[in-house]
Amino acid sequence: DAGVIQSPRHEVTEMGQEVTLRCKPISGHDYLFWYRQTMMRGLELLIYFNNNVPIDDSGMPEDRFSAKMPNASFSTLKIQPSEPRDSAVYFCASSLLLLNTDTQYFGPGTRLTVL
Amino acid sequence: GNSVTQMEGPVTLSEEAFLTINCTYTATGYPSLFWYVQYPGEGLQLLLKATKADDKGSNKGFEATYRKETTSFHLEKGSVQVSDSAVYFCALSLQGAQKLVFGQGTRLTINP
Predict the structure, then answer these.
(1) Which residues pair with A112 in a beta bridge?
(2) pLDDT (tens digit, 9 = 90+) per residue, B48-71?
């Protein structure tokens, strides 16, 4: 299996622009997570989906952030408009089941820089 | 609330040294505990886990024992290698709670 795939790996944009991050989970996994990693705040869960349905979006920082999962093999995280404080590494992860013992498999991340 | 506290880094050791990275947790229930590792430029990957008190997780020479009495899950390795240089995250998840709670991460550098 190719693992969790994220694109792009690096994104540099200017403040005010729309940014879309993409994720393809591991085939057959029915949970998908979006995380943000910064030096100041560490690793934060933004939102997660089960069977394409958003279950908990309490970590989404504000209305500028939105996430969708139109099908089992694709999810997007959109920031509109972007701000310099959104600069971070964004990770997508997936898992097969979500008992509290199950492993989450992480993608390589998208490093976002907002100028 | 539920939280994880790790020893602050960075940690720098020489090759073949003994490693301990401390991790303590606060949880309202009975968590499962995890160590994830992040190599440079990569995403996190599971290193080991333990699901109940006194369980020992182990992988790649690393070990951690779930200590309920001290609410700890310290990571140890007897002889580190340069290839172990990475950031290590301790995490917990609770039964019925659909997410991981991560510690702040500890950066480990091993010098030859």
Answers:
(1) A11, A88
(2) 999 899 999 999 999 999 999 999
Query: Which residue in chain A is spatially nearest to B102 when comparing CA positions?
Result: A43
Determine the Cα–Cα distance for residues A17 and A70; give it in Å rounded to an integer.
Answer: 23
Q: β-strands B19-21, B62-65: how paired?
A: unpaired
What are the structure tokens assigned to A36, written together? 């943000």
Mutate one of B23, B52, B55, B99 to test the A interface: name it (highest A CB count within 10 A). Answer: B99
Q: CB of A75 within 8 A of CB of A69?
A: yes
Q: Of A32, A40, A37, give the one whose Cα is nearest residue A57.
A: A32
Identify all chain B residues contacting A91, using CB atoms and an 8 Å cutoff.
43-44
Instruction: Give one DSSP letter per residue of B45-74, joined into a string.
Output: EEEEEE-STT-EEEETTEEEE-BTTTTB--
pLDDT, block means (10 residues), chain A with 115 residues? 91 97 95 92 92 92 94 96 96 82 88 97
Within 8 A of A99 by CB-CB distance, chain B residues are 95
Q: What CA–CA distance (Å, rounded) separates A24 from B8? A: 34
DSSP characters over A54-66: EEE-TT--STTEE
